[in-house]
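Entry 0007
Protein: YjbF family lipoprotein
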Amino acid sequence: MRRFLFIPVSLLLSGCGPLLPESWVPDLSALWEPTPPEAEPDPPGSLAARAPADGTPALRLTWAQGSATALLVSQNGERRLWRSGGGVVVATDGARVTATAGLREWIAGTRLDGSDPLDEPLALLVQSASLRRQVDFMRNDRSPDRMRFGVALSCRLGATQQGPVVLVRETCRGGGNSFTNRYWADPATGGIFRSEQWVGEIGAMRLDVITPPS
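Output (structure tokens):
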């Protein structure tokens, strides 16, 4: 249990004279913890946007406060974890962002009701699809009273041919939120190489594939 030291006000008033030496007065800053800093974007003009020379899979992340290149740090099938040098962390399942860390608000987890239509983006050219999912949010200070669990989102996905690419739009509502995610896919393979996805309080994050994973 943390102990708090009580000091009579009369002993701290300057008008009462130097009753105690300055070196004795305790530093009270340790009685609270500051909010953790947010992750840093890459510096302006950084060369980090280039593909890694060693071929490591990489994404370019862009959000309202800046941009950063995130490298693949772990993979289990289609589930991948990416991290930037400044501390932005993004978890993806296929093309979908399922968790984030390092920003002001984090996505702590995502649960889908059924299969993800993004797994077959070209099929959305023929028939649109619905998806329900639940998302958990937390602040970067991990304050329990600011956590939000099970925010339910109802989404509708459809795709159109836009010149040389297939554009998938995902319109979602729920939990007081309304937004549209966009995904750009190769019409030959269905591989999604760019997306703009809502990630909570900061709004949309853009993900561009610099070096695709194997």
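Curator remark: The radius of gyration is 23 Å. The chain has one domain: 57-211.
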